[in-house]
Write a structure and sequence with these properties.
By secondary structure, this protein is mainly α. It has a domain at 124-256. It has 9 helices and no strands. Helix 3 runs antiparallel to helix 4 (97-123), helix 4 runs antiparallel to helix 5 (128-145) and helix 6 packs antiparallel against helix 7. The mean pLDDT is 91. The structure holds zinc ion (ZN).
Amino acid sequence: MIGFFIFLFGLIIGSFLNAALYRLEVGGSLVKERSRCPLCGHILKWYELLPVLSFLIQKRKCRSCGGKISFQYPLVELLTGFLFLSTFLYIWAGLSFQGIIDVVYIFTVLSFIILIFVFDLKHYIIPNIAVYSLITISFFYSLYFYSFSEILFYILAAFLASGFFLLLYVVSSGKWIGMGDVKYGVFMGFFLGWPKILIGLFIAYIVGALVGVMLMAFEKKNIKSEIPFGPFLIVGTLTAYFFGMDILSWYLNLAY
Ligand SMILES: [Zn+2]
């Protein structure tokens, strides 16, 4: 039952993330301005703002102008719902101060991650506000909950990831990787720590290479085309977060 409410909560946050993405794209205040149809400017009523449902009931169309609503809206809502639910089931250890803080922390992190994922995919830019928020939140979380020697390993992981990206950035004069990825590396380290950061980077590069080869095979992109790296870093981050230790022990068993 609680799982259902967490999923529902994720859908609502997803709908809010769509609004935030729209504001990042066109400007204006997120809190003061009403949600509008991006095509005709018609102010949406409450029943046109129901996550996923309104999209299905209205058959992808704006009730005012009949224009097509982007699939981004229900997809982001569903993605947020599923990610919230699966992380909740993964970390929930019962009602306690630490338990509640952990859930709030991970839901906040996921929200910013989803924002970056979609924005980078569409515009090839990682928004500063999102990545700075992630760095700040993950840094203070580590500071509060980890011992001094543990924190050192988190800082090491942050330096490793961002330092590696910065090197790629400098060597390629920003062609292979963007400054946003370098900043994201700092968060990735603080969030995953050592040695999960290695798994995260490894997965990001493997998935990135596979998708790159597939896009070239289908001739959607050539070798010179730009592909945003942020979404792959995020896939790496989440895979390492959930399965990092399993992957590591599987690999070590294989190696020895
Ligand atoms: Zn419209």
